[in-house]
Structure formats: C-alpha cells, structure tokens
Amino acid sequence: MPVSNGTRKRARKAKNFFKTPKGLVTIILLAFIAMAAPGQGIATVGAGLVSAAIAAGLVDLLILRVRKKVWEFPSGAVLTALIVSMVLRAQEPWYVVTITSVAAILSKYIFRSRAANVFNPAALAIVVSFYVFHTGQSWWGALTDVTPVAKVLLIAAGVFIADRVNKMPLVVTFLGAYFLLFTVTSFGKDPLSVAEIFRTPDLEAALYFAFIILTDPPTSPAKYPDQIVCGVIVAVVSYALFEWVGVVYYLLAGVLAGNVWEAWRRVNRRTGYTFPKGIGAFLREISPV
C-alpha cells in the first residue's frame, strides 16, 4: 500500500524534531525515566507522568491553536511535564503532579516579556506547589537511585545538551561557584552540615538542575558574559537559601532569581533605562499579562 504525501510529511517533521535540542532533550529525559522509574516503582510514578504529560499537552495544544490559528504539537508542554514529574517526590499523588504541570504551562502565558516567558515554568510551578500541596522533591529522575555508572551517563548527556543549546559557560560557572561556596563553608564550620550537598541525591539533583533546568533557552542568557553573571547569581542564591533558610526548593529558587535578573537585563537593554528609573518598566515586564 503506497504511503501518502501527508504521511511522509508528518514522518519527516517528526524526524526533524528529534534532531532539534528540544527533541534531543526529550529523548534523553525518556531514557532517564526508563532507567529510574523501575527503582521508584513504575506504578508509583507512571500515573503522574502520563496524566501530567497528557493534561499539560492538551492545555498547551489549545492555547497554541488559539494564538497561532494552527494545530501544533505541544512538545514544550510535554517536556515541562516530564521535568516536573522527575523532580517532585515520586510518591506525590498523580493529580498533584498533573496540576503542577498544568500550572507550569499556564505560567508561560501569564508571565511573559515581549520575547518569551520570564520564569522557568517547571521551577516556578514546583515552588508554588510546595506551598499549595506541601509537595516534596526527590529528584528521582536525576538517576539518584540507579547504579553509579548512570552518573556518568547523566554528566555525558548533560554536557551534550548544554553544548547543543550553547550554555556551557552558564553550567560551568554555576557548578563551579555552587560547589566552591559549600567547600569553603565546610572549612569554617562542621563539615557534616554541608556534606549532603556532595552526596546522593543532592549531588545528582544539582547536576540535573544545571544541565536540564538552568539551560532553558527562553529564560537564560544567550551571550557568554551574561551567562557567567547569571550562573554566579543562581549559585549564590541557591547557597544562601540552603544555608540560611533551609527550604527544599533552594535550587529552583536560585534559577527563579536568575530569571528575574535576565528579565531585568533584557528590559534595560531594550529601553535604555537603569536603576531606579527602570523599575517601572521591569515590573511591567514580569507582571501577568
């Protein structure tokens, strides 16, 4: 039976998608899930993963249809839902994972600049879910409970992703500043108080965060000097919240601080305003629209 032109076109489009950075990240995350899910219990994480991906995808599908007047596969929404599911505690109820993922998608359209969303949607939604649902974070998708060989895969895949989206300076700066701050702290106080940062699951969480969440193209700087500044900001805020506040979402709060700085930089570049005159323009930039 001959293959129609429409089928060929869809197959070509799908093939091209999986060559893009977003497509490659999707493949890598699915591989991580395949390795990590059995250790958590496929039934435990499966319901949340599937329902979150479907619900977030449908919401984004409809929004994209209204905005662009064409049907477009919501690849970004599926990717966001996967990240939310892989960060939240594996035992969270499926509806909590689903609502958090849908909230992440909606946040992309609520907090927007002229060019893109202001906040990393997964990070923002997970932080909010902590206060709404009292969620926990196990970062099981970072291969925390998998054989040590998987750590090599996490790093290799992460470096590959960071290189493809041209964010290596951001990743290296963040990881360098982050671990340096905790290393210096260990010499000034009881080393056991910060030892967990260098152990499972916090170590894998930091790597997954740096490679997968921090490098989100719409919410992170493109130019190398800006990436270096942003990496330092995220590391310092994450460190400060861990040491002085002790919140479980210290890494995600760090990236949100970096998002705010990046939004501020973009507004100043476009308007030419500086502090304090630029405050009004900045607030309008990140306010719900």
Would you kindly provide a written description of the structure presented here, covering whatever features stand out?
This protein is an all-alpha fold. 71% of the residues lie in helices and 0% in strands. It has 12 helices and no strands. The protein has helices spanning 5-17, 21-40, 42-68, 75-87, 94-110, 121-133, 149-164, 168-188, 202-213, 224-245, 250-271, 278-286. Helix 3 packs antiparallel against helix 4 (75-87). It is globular and about 70 Å long. The termini are far apart.
Write the layout of secondary structure elements.
Elements: H1 5-17, H2 21-40, H3 42-68, H4 75-87, H5 94-110, H6 121-133, H7 149-164, H8 168-188, H9 202-213, H10 224-245, H11 250-271, H12 278-286
Helix pairs in contact: 2-3, 2-4, 2-7, 3-4, 3-5, 4-5, 4-6, 5-6, 6-11, 7-9, 8-9, 8-10, 10-11, 11-12
Order of helices and strands: HHHHHHHHHHHH
From the spread of the alpha carbons, the general shape counts as: globular
Q: What radius of gyration results from the CA coordinates?
A: 19 Å
Biggest sheet layout: none
Beta-sheet strand percentage? under 5%
Spans of at least 5 consecutive residues with low confidence: none
Counted beta strands:
0
- The portion of residues assigned to helices is over 70%
- Count of DSSP-assigned helices: 12
